[in-house]
Design a protein that fits this description.
Order of helices and strands of chain D: HHHHHHHHH
Chains: A mainly alpha (about 260), B alpha/beta (about 280), C alpha/beta (about 400), D mainly alpha (about 220)
Strand content of chain D: under 5%
Oligomer: heterotetramer
Helix content of chain D: over 70%
Radius of gyration of chain D: 27 Å
Radius of gyration of chain A: 30 Å
Largest sheet of chain A: none
Largest interface: A-D, 119 and 134 residues
Distance between the termini of chain A: 61 Å
Structural class of chain D: mainly alpha
Order of helices and strands of chain A: HHHHHHHH
Shape of chain A: extended
Mean pLDDT of chain A: 90
């Protein structure tokens, strides 16, 4: 037993993070980032490797979080303490997995119906209150003033505008009547409100995506420092060399897949 | 002329990629240093709400974002925690997104070193483990949180912690904030804020920010921090400039590039059509 | 349950301050009309206390609420507030669950933090203490039995709406099965005809992608119905159709759909099994491969209809640069701006479902759409009448009307 | 057998669904105790639903490797990536930071591998937005123009440089660009988004009803 313990300890010691590992980490991070960016030039093996690593590593991270933060404290430890009532949800949960075995896949229905029934029962009244009643209430709320005066005329105007636009958009999505006459006019106005929404969303999406890119560039800049022995520069150079080589080999073979 | 324009319109898109790389990388190497002004109304509302909470109020911070949205949401979370701890509020960090646990560790490491070194774990803040079923957890938050959060992320019982004193459900908390790149905030609005009449605010990515307009107008959300601009605004409000502020500065040139590109290409189109 | 004893805390305070106020003793009349009862519509652990307004006499005074569990007697202060607070009309309950009497005050006093909340009922005694400066007065204690209730009346509007939706839903389902329901033609469907016509003229292929959704998603189901329509037109004009796939199960379904369409148009000879083909299960690899194909083959028309995420950007751009007519449709709001700016026609959200239902005539899709239309009609009506009534209430200063309308559309 | 395979699960769904639905309107302590028990149980059940995603990913890539499908070699990296996280996790007992606040091997993997991979996957999209803006953003109708106008203001007003440009060109109007964005976000956007919301909300309610009443059974798989 002690022998096994020793083996484990020396194995675990391999995983100690030393300063050298931190520098190496910069190389790994810069390498993976640039491999994924290389997709912008064209689809290539490095991108594919990094992409598949991403899928695996993502699952691995989730797996260990579930293992240490859910299964251990919520299932294993209570069972050890003799709380056998957790067996019911555990079995229902494990039943989900039978889905992958066609012969007994019906067992998974017990777990699924248990989840779906509960979720559906919760969501119905909450949707009615949050997305239905409160939205009607919110639309008419600006009219709930003790009197109409110059002080609240702006909020009244805006409120009218919201209510008007809201109804027009609803007409656009109304499928039970032909779009003719007044209905057509209303739905045509509705689409302009939708366009303003989409335009604002477009503008914000630009900022969002650029922010993510900024985050990656910021990291790459960090790894291009001398502390990391110019990891970014070197990796980038290697990748460019690969593409040049690739192109030379391909052109000798007489063309290849046209990138775009 | 026409031919040249047409060719210019069908330019290899990798040249455009290159232009973006240069315009975004340059300000990182050499910041423009433009001031971030014109703070958003919804961000100021979050700030004021926290500012007006009585001391030692409990703030529930649900950090539900993963590394994919880190640059936008992490600065928001850091700024909010700084503000709450400086105001001497109690902070409970929750998460319903398994990818967020690493981000939370990052914050946990920073609190004793630079965010608020004088604050004590278990007295001023607590970090809860990840839970897998958002709707079940949210429903339970309004009844009795100890039935699900009986232990913190290190396995210590939460009930006796000083930070949890007098807190049994969201009814005993001052404010809830959900920072997320997914639809988790929508769930919080329906399952916690509306159901248990609990004040909630949010921090979201720029992509999903416009979608929360209706909830803000009805007051279902007390405020909203949107994207990197929101993070920069919040950093300005708490007078502690960090990644959000430097980020929004760096985005300046790239934003102008997009506008220039859209306008140029459409002018070329018009010229090609009518000339 | 340890509680600091209240009386010892208050007594020294009274003695300390009494000398100064002894000079001018103004007896404070106790609060009148004090009643205590179970708080209706809650889970227990709260009592409804009501009393007459203390009026002018209580200017600057405070009310303290004391409670004692009869099972374990001992007075505990559970609330304290200015005497003018909590008039009955401020109670956060709708008019159908609460009738506010003028000149009365009411409080939903929480007893659960002091005495816990048993599953059954508990008997608790209450008294109010009016305090003004050094003088105070107390009401006689009143007992109340507190328990949980079977119905939360303030959620009645929610319940009525829920039941209405259930009834409308079952009505439309049975109606759709028996007689079918009317749905207007979606303008986007005409654009499909135009696109296919153009492809025929140019002799170039048509690309159709159902997106990256699985077969259980409504947009994917709607997309397969639209694919059926497209395939019928394609079979009729004998154009070539290519359907790259992300999900193998969706591909199997689409093969059947396309085959069926060719059979219906009596062109089984023109049907090719490689119309539908599998590309990749990786989001970006899928987008990159389809991009490359579109770039190479320069189709006359591209359809991107179904569930799309970030790849919408990559797909729509390449189609636009090759000059294809593009028709898109998705339920993902965040992707709609990209489709809208780079495609010739875009089916927005529910329009996609409506187009699917219109073409498939599937009773379940039709009935869902009908219930949605019912909901929208209800909302339009509610917003118009609600805002008109509120505005009228504001102009004529008719406060009860405004309260009734406001509470009807409030969630509790 | 059909009773066990089909009717009981459908009954569970109906029973649990109706009780949970009712608990919203019934504030009684019994209803609350029921909900509390369900919350605890559902939380655990959902903890196992993750296995579905894990197994289907493993299964599809295992399938690819065993069939030697094109590009099967890449599929190996899915397993490599998985082990790359899970082995250090087990060694460091699931703690990215040790008790003395030092980074463990799991923390190292998280910071340098997982963060870079998952952060970059979506950062790539920024490039496509720019090229779409140039090559595909066509203002060909009044609607598209309105969309462009809104996007223009938002893109400009979000960054300091854009705000300065607005102040220089349109500062005389007395309106800050952020005021315009604020108005846009709180008036027309609210109207547009709310209009979309209502349909989605009722669609969701109808789907939930179908599930409770056993009309929608697709999630149960084939018979």
């Amino acid at each position: 037993m002690e022998f096994l313990g020793n083996i484990w300890n020396s194995f675990a010691a391999l995983f100690t993070v030393t300063p050298g590992w931190m520098t190496f980490g910069g190389w790994v991070a810069a390498g993976l980032t640039i491999c994924l960016f290389s997709f912008l030039y064209k689809d290539n093996p490095f991108f594919k490797v990094a992409e598949h690593l991403y899928l695996g590593a993502g699952m691995g991270w989730l797996f260990q979080v579930y293992l240490f933060q859910t299964w251990k404290p919520k299932v294993f430890l209570p069972l050890m303490e003799g709380q056998y009532s957790v067996l019911i949800p555990t079995l229902l949960g494990l039943s989900l997995v039978t889905q992958f075995f066609p012969r007994i896949s019906w067992i998974s229905r017990y777990g699924f119906t248990f989840i779906m029934g509960y979720g559906s029962g919760l969501v119905i009244p909450l949707t009615i209150s949050t997305d239905f009643l409160k939205q009607i209430g919110g639309t008419i709320a600006p009219f709930m003033v003790s009197e109409i005066n110059s002080g609240n005329i702006m909020s009244l105007l805006n409120g009218t505008f919201v209510a008007f636009g809201f109804i027009c958009v609803l007409f656009y999505f109304f499928f039970s009547v032909e779009h003719k006459g007044a209905v057509k006019k209303a739905s045509n106005i509705g689409i302009y409100f939708l366009m303003l929404y989409f335009g604002a969303a477009f503008g914000n999406t630009v900022m969002g995506r650029f922010s993510l890119l900024y985050g990656r560039f910021d990291d790459l800049y960090k790894y291009s420092a001398p502390d990391y022995f110019y990891a970014t520069h070197v990796v980038l150079g290697l990748l460019v060399a690969y593409f040049i080589l690739d192109k030379l080999v391909l052109s000798r073979r007489g063309g290849g897949q046209e990138a775009h | 002329m026409k031919n040249a324009l047409e060719k210019f319109l069908k330019i290899d898109r990798r040249l455009i990629f290159l232009a973006l790389t240069v315009l975004l990388f340059a300000p990182i190497v050499r910041p423009l240093g433009l001031p971030n002004k014109n703070l958003g109304k919804d961000v100021v509302n979050v700030y004021n709400y926290i500012e007006n909470l009585p001391e030692r109020s409990f703030v529930m911070l649900s950090l539900d974002y993963d590394p994919a949205t880190r640059p936008e949401l992490h600065p928001q979370a850091v700024a909010l925690i700084k503000h709450a701890l400086r105001r001497n509020l109690r902070v409970g960090i929750f998460t319903l997104n398994a990818g967020a646990t690493g981000m939370i560790e990052d914050i946990a490491a920073r609190i004793p070193s630079d965010i608020a070194p004088d604050k004590v774990y278990g007295r001023d803040y607590v970090i809860m483990p990840f839970q897998p079923n958002p709707v079940a957890v949210m429903t339970q938050l309004g009844i009795n949180i100890y039935e699900i959060y009986d232990k913190d992320r290190n396995g210590n019982p939460t009930k006796d912690m000083e930070v949890m004193k007098g807190v049994k459900s969201v009814k005993d908390m001052g404010l809830g904030i959900c920072i997320t790149g997914t639809a988790m905030l929508d769930y919080y609005v329906a399952y916690v804020a509306d159901k248990y009449k609990f004040p909630m605010a949010g921090g979201v990515t720029a992509v999903s920010q416009p979608g929360y307009g209706p909830y803000l107008q009805t007051g279902q959300l007390k405020g909203l921090i949107g994207g990197m601009k929101g993070a920069a605004d919040y950093e300005t409000l708490i007078k502690d400039l960090e990644k959000g502020t430097s980020g929004i500065d760096a985005l300046s040139l790239a934003h102008v590039l997009v506008i220039v590109l859209i306008v140029t290409s459409n002018i070329i189109m018009l010229v090609l059509k009518y000339l | 349950m340890k509680r600091p004893p209240i009386i010892p805390l208050i007594l020294p305070f009274l003695f300390l301050t009494s000398p100064s106020s002894a000079a001018k003793p103004s007896p404070l009349p106790p609060l009148t009309g004090f009643t205590a009862a179970d708080m209706p519509g809650d889970a227990g652990g709260a009592a409804l206390l009501r009393w007459d307004s203390p009026g002018e006499a209580a200017e600057g005074a405070a009310i303290e609420v004391y409670a004692s569990d009869t099972a374990k007697p001992g007075w505990v202060k559970i609330a304290e507030f200015p005497a003018s607070a909590h008039p009955e009309k401020d109670m956060d309950l709708p008019f159908w669950a609460w009738r506010a009497a003028p000149g009365r005050h009411a409080l939903a006093a929480d007893t659960s933090s002091a005495f816990g909340r048993p599953d059954g009922s508990q008997e608790i005694e209450f008294k109010l203490r009016l305090v003004k400066g050094a003088v105070s007065s107390e009401t006689d204690p009143v007992k109340a039995v507190i328990n949980g209730n079977w119905f939360n009346a303030s959620r009645l509007n929610n319940l009525v709406l829920m039941l209405t939706i259930v009834v409308v839903f079952f009505w439309t389902v049975s109606h759709a099965k028996r007689k079918g329901l009317f749905i207007r033609r979606i303008a986007g469907l005409d654009a499909i005809d135009e696109a296919i016509g153009r492809a025929t003229e140019m002799g170039r292929p048509i690309y159709y992608s159902t997106g990256i959704g699985s077969m259980s998603m409504v947009p994917t189901i709607a997309s397969t119905s639209i694919l059926g329509e497209v395939a019928r037109k394609v079979a009729q004009y004998d154009t070539s159709l290519k359907v790259p796939h992300f999900d193998p199960i969706v591909m199997t379904v689409c093969k059947e759909v396309v085959k069926q369409s060719y059979l219906e148009m009596e062109r089984p000879d023109s049907y090719r099994d490689d119309t539908n083909f599998f590309v990749s299960q990786d989001q970006f690899s899928f987008a990159a491969s389809v991009d490359a194909m579109i770039h190479r083959e320069k189709p006359a028309a591209c359809f991107f209809i179904g569930h799309f995420m970030a790849e919408s950007l990559l797909l729509a751009e390449v189609g636009a640069t090759t000059g294809a007519i593009q028709i898109a449709g998705t339920e993902q709001e965040s992707q709609l701006p990209f489709f809208f700016t780079s495609c010739d026609y875009t089916l927005i959200g529910e329009e996609l479902y409506a187009a699917g239902a219109y073409l498939s005539k599937e009773p379940m899709l039709m009935s869902t759409l009908k219930v949605q239309d019912f909901g929208k009609a209800f909302v339009m009506l509610a917003v118009v009448t609600g805002s008109v009534l509120l505005a009228a209430g504001a102009v004529f200063s008719w406060e009860p009307l405004m309260r009734i309308v406001g509470q009807l559309f409030k969630a509790y | 057998m059909i009773f066990i395979k089909k009717h009981i699960p459908l009954f569970i769904c109906f029973f649990v669904g109706v009780l949970t639905l009712g608990s919203y309107y019934v504030p009684n302590a019994r209803s609350e105790n029921y909900l509390e028990m369900m919350n605890k149980w559902e939380n655990i059940v959902a903890g196992f639903a993750f296995l579905l995603g894990l197994m289907s990913l493993f299964y599809s890539h295992f399938h690819k490797i065993s069939r030697k499908a094109p590009g099967w070699g890449y599929s190996l990296f899915v397993y490599v990536g998985f082990l790359l996280v899970v082995v250090p996790a087990i060694v460091s007992n699931g703690q990215p930071m040790s008790l003395t606040n030092e980074m463990t091997s799991l923390g190292w993997i998280y910071r340098f591998v997982f963060t870079s991979l998952s952060g970059t996957m979506f950062a790539v999209l920024a490039f496509y937005i720019v090229s779409t803006a140039y090559r595909a953003f066509r203002i060909k109708s009044p609607q598209a123009f309105v969309l462009f106008a809104a996007a223009f203001i938002v893109i400009l007003g979000r960054v300091p440089l854009g705000q300065m440009m607005w102040d220089g060109l349109l500062g005389w109007t007395g309106y800050q660009v952020t005021d315009v964005i604020e108005w846009l976000m709180s008036v027309p956007v609210v109207a547009g988004r709310r209009g979309i919301m209502i349909g989605i909300a009722i669609g969701g309610i109808v789907t939930a009803l179908k599930i409770i009443f056993g009309i929608e059974r697709q999630y149960m798989g084939k018979d």
